[in-house]
Write a structure and sequence with these properties.
Blueprint: H1 17-22, H2 24-27, H3 33-45, E1 57-65, H4 82-97, E2 101-104, E3 110-116, E4 122-126, H5 129-132, H6 145-152, H7 166-169, E5 170-175, H8 179-185, E6 188-190, E7 193-197
Parallel strand pairs: 1-5, 3-6
Antiparallel strand pairs: 2-7, 3-4, 6-7
GO biological process, one term: DNA biosynthetic process
Organism: Petrolisthes manimaculis
InterPro entries: DNA/RNA_pol_sf, Rev_trsase/Diguanyl_cyclase, RNA-dir_DNA_polymerase, RT_dom
């Protein structure tokens, strides 16, 4: 039986940076005028990185190593309601239209699911847990939160930047694999049709 869902489900909001850039003076009204002017100038100077379409971020590349003898993992898709299938298809169509993914016939496949966000929309995720079990863990130590806070204690401004669909903007490098095999491993399964990440 299909799950019931609220009629208030929100479709995923798309990026509107061009609208934000056009209305910066109104958005920054809470800042002193000299600070608002500096920030507006900075954002307009680098407006190409505030696109309405996700771009590839090349500042960080993820190095992932497979364990010796790892074989392709192929999983079935998860069941979901017709409402969620529609939302998922909209996300797939968006990513296809913006060259974030492409159709695939990979021997690897991992199922998609939708995770609710606080604003009522959904985040499309891919369940890579079975592939994760085939990777060599990265033992690099995470920084201590208290050290980070101490380092920020003297600053006057704190800025947070979020990448829309950040996972799909990241470069991946699976060590020991040719690029086609890498894309194949990141295959996303969505109701009998598979897609590869293009990042």
């Amino acid at each position: 039986m299909e799950e019931t869902e609220s009629s208030t489900i929100r479709t995923n909001v798309k990026l509107c940076n061009s609208e934000i850039l056009a209305n910066l003076s109104q958005i920054l009204h809470y800042l002193p005028s000299d600070h608002a002017c500096d920030l507006e100038k900075l954002l307009k100077t680098f407006k190409q990185i505030c696109s309405d379409v996700p771009q590839q971020c090349r500042l960080v590349e993820h190095d992932i190593v497979l364990v010796e003898g790892a074989q392709p993992v192929k999983q079935a898709f998860y069941r979901m309601s017709s409402t969620k299938r529609k939302i998922l298809q909209e996300e797939i169509d968006y990513m296809l239209a913006h060259d974030l993914i492409e159709r695939s016939d990979s021997p690897w496949s991992s199922p998609c699911l939708l995770v609710p966000k606080p604003d009522g929309s959904y985040r499309m995720c891919t369940d890579y847990r079975k592939i994760n079990r085939l990777t060599v863990p990265d033992c690099y130590p995470l920084p201590r939160i208290d050290d980070i806070i101490d380092n920020l204690g003297h600053v006057k401004f704190v800025t947070t930047i979020d990448l829309l669909r950040g996972y799909y903007q990241s470069s991946h490098q699976w060590l020991g694999l040719v690029p086609d095999t890498l894309m194949s491993m990141l295959a996303v399964l969505r109701h009998h049709v598979m897609y590869d990440s293009l990042m």
